[in-house]
Amino acid sequence: MSNATIARTITSNEKKASDTMQTLVMAMVAECYNTFDGDDIPKDQQDDILTRVAKDSTWGDTDAEGARKSEWRACLIAYPYYFAEACKLFRKEHGELRRAHMLKIARAVVKHESYREAVTTVVKSLAAKGKGRKATLGMGLGIIKNLQTRARNVIAFRKELAALCAKHGIDY
Question: Using the 8-state DSSP alphabet, how is residue 80 labeled?
Fold first, then answer.
């Protein structure tokens, strides 16, 4: 196995819309174990893998490339710390595993004694921020309400402006 194989694993699975984030993480971790036997990946090898991933992926602009490289570097650093097991546990407890969750877990498993502690910390931080589906739905409804209010204000302003222009003989 090589860095190219790890990079291909990430990009080929990233392009499949049917794959879940957990499938992608599991494939990446398996390839890392095959190549590095659970040892930390040297920085130059991480750079090589991430350069290959960036070249083969559909990330788009330079800003997205930098962000994605940072995310995947965190995952490459976290793989020997039971990262895959932490992702499985998180998905079991939380019901889903998104890219943002994966990144938080990757950074947490490196800091904590066990992957269970890391997952508990991530779940608590999400609960504290109110990032559940109900909170997201509430934020969305608030945005729609504000848009409707703004639309009403714009319509009222235009009516008042038209009346003012008509009063003073200005074409509007």
Answer: G
Please, are residues 79 and 41 in contact by the beta-carbon 8 Å criterion?
A: yes
Q: Name residue 78's amino acid.
A: A
Two structure tokens written together for 92: 């079991």
Task: Please state, in angstroms and rounded to a whole number, the distance separating the CA atoms of residues 14 and 28.
Answer: 11
Q: What is the pTM of this model?
A: 0.63
Give the single-character DSSP code of 41.
P
End-to-end alpha carbon distance in the chain: 71
What three-state secondary structure class fits 7?
helix
Find the angle CA(140)-CA(145)-CA(146) to the nearest 5 degrees.
100
CA distance 41 to 117: 23
- Which tens digit of pLDDT belongs to each residue from 108-160? 999 998 999 999 998 888 876 665 667 777 777 777 777 777 788 888 888 88
pLDDT in tens, 30-50: 888 888 888 999 999 988 888
CA–chain centroid gap for 99, Å, is 3
CB within 8 A of 70, min separation 6: which ones? none
